[in-house]
Amino acid sequence: MGKPRITTWEDLHLDCVFIIFSKLGLDDLTAVIPFVCKSWFQASSHPSLHKILDFTLLDLNSSSPLSKILSSQYSLHRFTFSGFLKLAMALSNGAADELRFSALFPPSIEVLSTASAACPSLKTLFLPRINFDDEARFLDLIPNWSDLECLEMESKPSNLGEMVKQIGANCGRFRGLKIRGSIDNADAQGIVNFLPKIESLDLSGSRMRREEALAILDGCRELKRFTVRDCVGFEVDDELQRRAAGIELFEFEGCRAEEKFRNFINHTEDLDYMLMHYGDCFELWML
Are 79 and 149 part of one and the same domain? Predict the structure, then answer.
């Protein structure tokens, strides 16, 4: 007896459909696939396809093609990012374990509050930044993510010490932190005291002293990856490299002392070249 012939897309085995759909982004899974046929609608709504909610590559302006398609397909009077976020989270049905926001559309504290309730199994969270006035409220959301393993932020919150304290107290599996900003002694001690088992720490592009780098190396004994690329405030000398000898990956290219950084700024006439290296920091200073 021969194998059954597949005559339509609806006849395709569900496992094959999941494999194909797993390669698609949120835009296709919400604005295109559900409207092809009934079987595709059912398949695209499966929570396993919405474990990664990545908004970083989506144009969510109200005038964008995606926004217009979504407004048309769902008969919306007005497209909003929060509405799209709620749709994506509803489709995940609590199964989402990775959530990434775009720097162009940073989430409000209300959006983050919704995410903390709708994504209790979150393991990876990428945040471009948190408004200063919302930092204290963000601390109250951390206990809802007890499975959190990795947090990435494009800018360091002013209450970093309190944040890592909350993470250390509520997220027993936490192993990875990526932030950028001015790292002082209190920040370094907070990381050492509250995240002693951290395995990956990325402080690239930060301003920090040699003392803070040494304190982290001495205090975080389980570090497997320590990244301080393009940091300003110290150069990696033999002593630093010796202290980091037990780490699997120590990345420090581009580190420079404060004086060399000032000379670089003073003698660089090509603004585009300067912004290519320090564009993100420049944006943060402007804010």
Answer: no
> What does DSSP say about strands 124-127 and 150-153: parallel, antiparallel, or unpaired?
parallel
Q: Which two tokens stand for residue 227?
A: 């990244």
Count of domains for the chain = 2
- How confident is the model over 56-114, as pLDDT tens digits? 888 878 788 888 888 888 887 888 887 888 888 888 888 899 999 988 888 889 989 99
Token pair of 50 as six digits: 């919405």
Same domain, 55 and 11: yes
254, two tokens: 């581009």
Segment (H or E) for 207: strand 207-208
Percent of the chain with pLDDT over 70: 85
pLDDT of residue 3: 55
Question: For residue 84, what are the domain limits?
Answer: 7-95
pLDDT confidence of residue 159: 94
Q: SS3 of 232, please?
A: strand
Residue 268 lies inside a defined structural domain of this protein: yes
> What integer pLDDT is reported at residue 91 of this predicted model?
85
Residues 6+ apart with CB under 8 A from 40: 9, 10, 17, 33, 34
Alpha-carbon distance of 217 to 200, in angstroms, equals: 12
| 81, 71 Cβ separation under 8 angstroms | no
What would the pLDDT profile of 185-223 be if each residue is shown by its tens digit?
999 999 999 999 999 999 999 999 999 999 999 999 999
Contact 233, 257 (CB under 8 A): yes
Burial class (CB in 10 A: 0-12, 13-18, 19+), 145: buried
